[in-house]
Amino acid sequence: MNEDMILMVRYKPRRLTAKEYIDYSKKVLSELCNLHPIFKNLCGWGKKPTDWYCFNPSFDDFDSVVLSQIEDNELAYINEDKTNKNLEWNSYSPIGFLNSYSNTKKEKEGKVSVKILDGSDNWTGHINIDFPTINYPDFNQLDFCMKLLQVCVELTQAEYAVILPSRLRKEVEKINKYWIGWITFFRGDIQASGTENNYQFGNGSIFFLPVENYTMTTETEIQNALKIRENMVQNNIQVIEDIENNLYGRR
Fold first, then answer.
1. Is the pLDDT confidence value at 115 over 60?
2. Whole-model pTM?
3. What are the pLDDT digits (tens) for 162-215?
4. Phi then psi for 136, rounded to 5 degrees?
5. Fewer beta carbons under 10 A from the terminal one: N or C of the chain?
6. How far apart are CA 50 and CA 26, in angstroms?
């Protein structure tokens, strides 16, 4: 079994209706389907155990199912008719919308999970993808993981994204709210002197630890991550502060 690994993507807050959130979620999942077949057989979690539902491969049942799965009966939704507090297609939520998707409930079957939080101008947009720890070696390959991160950055216009093994998460201190991972993206004008294995991507830079097959973090990767962290702190703290303002400064 491989080390736990997660892709975290963070993007600017924005206000979406329930329909816009569902459409965007479907777009994200459809793009993931194009990258790897594990995403072609997803089920939605919803808020209760009984909400679990496996979608048709065509996603023709996606909209109506997810509308019911994102509903929180304790929330007062925002509608054109101010007396109507129910969730409808054109409703807004004061805290945004959240749903999670997996191919299975069981880790031993190679579980991948996708969580999408979006739709409130008070909350940072999130996509988290928990990688399978067994049966799917592509998720430990640099080329595939680089492509996965790049697609998610482009879809969201992300400010920050990282593919983060659990050991790096524990042993390399964050810069403000941001970890350095196996592959890390920061939006902004990055000064990369003093670090290797980095390149421009879109309006930012990707840094990566030079490992072709990543199943367990080694001491070498920890030292390389610390080097990237030192560069960011010494040369790019203004970039970090700008990202933080874009993501969290609207509270």
1. yes
2. 0.95
3. 999 999 999 999 999 999 999 999 999 888 776 778 889 999 999 998 887 789
4. -125, 80
5. C
6. 21
Measured CA to CA, the distance from residue 230 to residue 97 in angstroms comes to 36
Residue 6 has pLDDT above 80, yes or no: yes
